[in-house]
């Protein structure tokens, strides 16, 4: 089916969180649906130009598997795309008429979150929320602030989330009939991290996952829009009993490439004892190997006597106390830019960031006593080869009684103080290893590394970490050297 041509300026797209679905992706999503009733009540929230509905209608017309009617309900907030959406629906009418399927549609030029939240909450007198047998979704994704109208509307129906896309999915699943199907393409970011935990709990308690598809390239799903968020496609059914196993598939994103598929026990995707409900998605053989290695580890940070926290210095709140260069009365302030070959390079006067912070009554509460700390970046650039990047801060190399870690860092410590050096160096090797990086990528589809994520990892025991440390004569190691040390000690434990 040929869709009407549209233009969507980048600035408007970003304001709406709108990224349109390419036809091959839409067709693939439509292929995921299982058998549907004779009359299909279909929801397409955030419909754009209608490519998802068009793809599903085309598939229903081609399969001719007993469907007699399709009743489509479409929501679209962008007024400039409505003509294209209407044209697509007219084409769906024609296609269904040729196939002997009755097709009807309603386009709502409205805010799906506000309207449907109100209907679900019973705020609109006499208007019961609709129900649907199927939903296909490429919801908008944009952060929503805690005091926004969307956030307040979602809270009225018990949904707590910080992004539009998870708000859409949470509402859609509430509108499905038992056994109703949802196929959606969303960022992978909801699979881990503390901010999305309420959504994961809600999602997994109401929807049964049947299939997950991951794109191996960040640019694959929305290449025309320069989207660098990793995306996944999921197929889920309204119900409370997760399957024993589900299909995981992956592709490079080049639509002519082959797709790999594997069937994996559900308990390997969401670990039964994991309170965070992280969703692990192995997409390559190396991910599966990494999981096998990590599953053999039995220590936690707590059992090692170690804690990880987010850097305490939020620089814009302490702007008056920051200094470009160290001076009397200041102490080191560390940013990711100070990472250099496994150790901290401080001061870095050529950097744009400040290098020092005043040590006084106002700032002392945000500082930590000097010692040996392991630092990791909370955010990595898409060009960095590892998602986890760890660096050692050693008080023997930076003379100071106190130090500040900026909020874009995580720091490992022992009850607020430095670590034993051998333990810190062992953790440095472990966290910088390829096996940990590959394991981490199973459940993390974005470049953010939260302290919660690091606490959730399993770790080698203290003896193994210290054995790694003894083999490291210099922290300026190649990736191959780090991996050789880590694998040797893990396999020899």
Strand content: 15-25%
Chain oligomer state: single chain
Distance between the amino and carboxyl termini: 59 Å
**Major sheet size, sense and barrel closure:** 9 strands, mixed
Let me know the average pLDDT: 88
Structural class based on helices, strands and sheet pairing: alpha/beta
Q: Report the CATH C-level class of the largest domain.
A: Alpha Beta
Topology:
Blueprint: H1 10-16, H2 23-31, E1 39-45, H3 51-63, E2 69-75, H4 82-99, E3 102-108, H5 112-121, E4 132-137, H6 149-155, H7 164-175, E5 176-187, H8 197-206, E6 207-215, E7 231-238, E8 245-251, E9 260-265, H9 266-269, H10 285-295, E10 307-310, E11 322-323, E12 330-334, E13 339-340, E14 343-344, E15 356-358, E16 368-369, E17 372-377, E18 390-394, E19 402-405, E20 409-413, H11 421-431, H12 434-443, H13 451-456, H14 462-470, H15 479-491
Helix pairs in contact: 2-3, 3-4, 5-6, 5-7, 7-8, 10-12, 11-14, 14-15
Key terms for this structure?
single chain, 493 residues, alpha/beta, Rossmann fold, Adenine-n6-DNA-methyltransferase TaqI, Chain A, domain 2, 2 domains, nine-stranded mixed β-sheet, five-stranded mixed β-sheet, 15 helices, 30% helix, 22% strand, elongated
What does this structure look like?
This protein is α/β, with parallel strands linked by helices and 493 residues long. It has two domains: 274 residues, 3-Layer(aba) Sandwich (Rossmann fold); 185 residues, Adenine-n6-DNA-methyltransferase TaqI, Chain A, domain 2. Helices cover 30% and strands 22% of the residues. It is built from 15 helices and 20 strands. It has a nine-stranded mixed sheet with strand order 3-2-1-4-5-7-6-8-9. It has a five-stranded mixed sheet with strand order 11-15-12-19-16, with no helix packed on it. A hairpin with a 2-residue loop joins strand 13 and strand 14. Helix 5 packs parallel to helix 6, helix 5 packs across helix 7 and helix 7 runs parallel beside helix 8. The longest helix is centred in the N-terminal third of the chain and has 18 residues. The protein is elongated, with a radius of gyration of 25 Å. The termini are far apart. About 4% of the residues have low confidence.
């Amino acid at each position: 089916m040929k869709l009407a041509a549209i233009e969507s300026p980048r600035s408007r797209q970003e304001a709406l969180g709108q990224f349109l679905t390419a036809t091959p992706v839409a067709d693939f999503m439509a292929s995921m649906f299982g058998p549907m009733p004779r009359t299909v009540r279909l929801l397409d929230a955030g419909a754009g130009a209608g490519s998802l509905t068009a793809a599903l209608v085309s598939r229903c017309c081609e399969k001719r598997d007993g469907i007699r009617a399709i009743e489509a309900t479409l929501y679209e907030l962008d007024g400039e795309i409505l003509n294209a959406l209407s044209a697509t629906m007219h084409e769906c009418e024609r296609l269904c008429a040729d196939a002997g399927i009755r097709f009807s549609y309603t386009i709502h030029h409205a805010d799906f979150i506000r309207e449907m939240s109100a209907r679900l909450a019973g705020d609109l007198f006499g208007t019961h929320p609709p129900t649907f047998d199927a939903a296909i979704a490429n919801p908008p994704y944009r952060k929503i602030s805690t005091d926004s109208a969307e956030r307040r509307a979602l809270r009225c129906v018990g949904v707590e989330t910080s992004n539009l896309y998870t708000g859409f999915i949470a509402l859609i699943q509430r509108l499905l009939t038992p056994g109703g199907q949802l196929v959606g393409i969303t960022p992978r970011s909801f699979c881990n991290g503390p901010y999305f935990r309420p959504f994961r709990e809600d999602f997994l308690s109401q929807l049964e996952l049947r299939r997950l598809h991951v794109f191996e390239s960040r640019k694959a799903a929305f290449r025309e829009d320069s989207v660098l968020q990793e995306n996944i496609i999921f197929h889920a059914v309204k119900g409370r009993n997760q399957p024993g196993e589900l299909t995981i598939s992956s592709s490079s994103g080049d639509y002519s490439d082959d797709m790999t598929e594997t069937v994996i026990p559900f308990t390997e995707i969401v670990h039964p004892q994991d309170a965070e409900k992280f969703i692990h998605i192995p997409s390559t053989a190396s991910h599966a190997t990494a999981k096998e290695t990590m599953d053999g580890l039995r220590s936690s940070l707590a059992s090692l006597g170690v804690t990880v926290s987010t850097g305490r210095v939020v620089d814009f709140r302490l702007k008056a106390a920051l200094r470009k260069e160290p001076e009397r009365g200041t102490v080191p302030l560390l940013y990711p830019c100070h990472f250099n070959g496994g150790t901290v390079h401080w001061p870095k006067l050529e950097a744009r960031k400040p290098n020092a912070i005043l040590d006084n009554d106002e700032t002392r509460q945000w500082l930590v006593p000097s010692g040996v700390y392991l630092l990791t970046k909370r955010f990595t650039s898409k060009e960095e080869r590892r998602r986890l990047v760890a660096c050692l801060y050693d008080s023997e190399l930076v003379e100071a009684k106190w130090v500040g870690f900026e909020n874009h860092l995580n720091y490992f410590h022992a009850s607020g103080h430095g670590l034993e050096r051998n333990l810190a160096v062992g953790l440095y090797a472990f966290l910088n290893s390829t096996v940990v990086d590959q394991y981490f990528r199973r459940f993390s589809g974005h470049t953010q590394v939260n302290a919660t994520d690091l606490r959730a990892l399993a770790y080698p025991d203290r003896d193994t970490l210290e054995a790694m440390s003894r083999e490291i004569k210099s922290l300026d190691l190649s990736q191959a050297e780090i991996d050789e040390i880590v694998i040797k000690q893990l396999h020899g434990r």
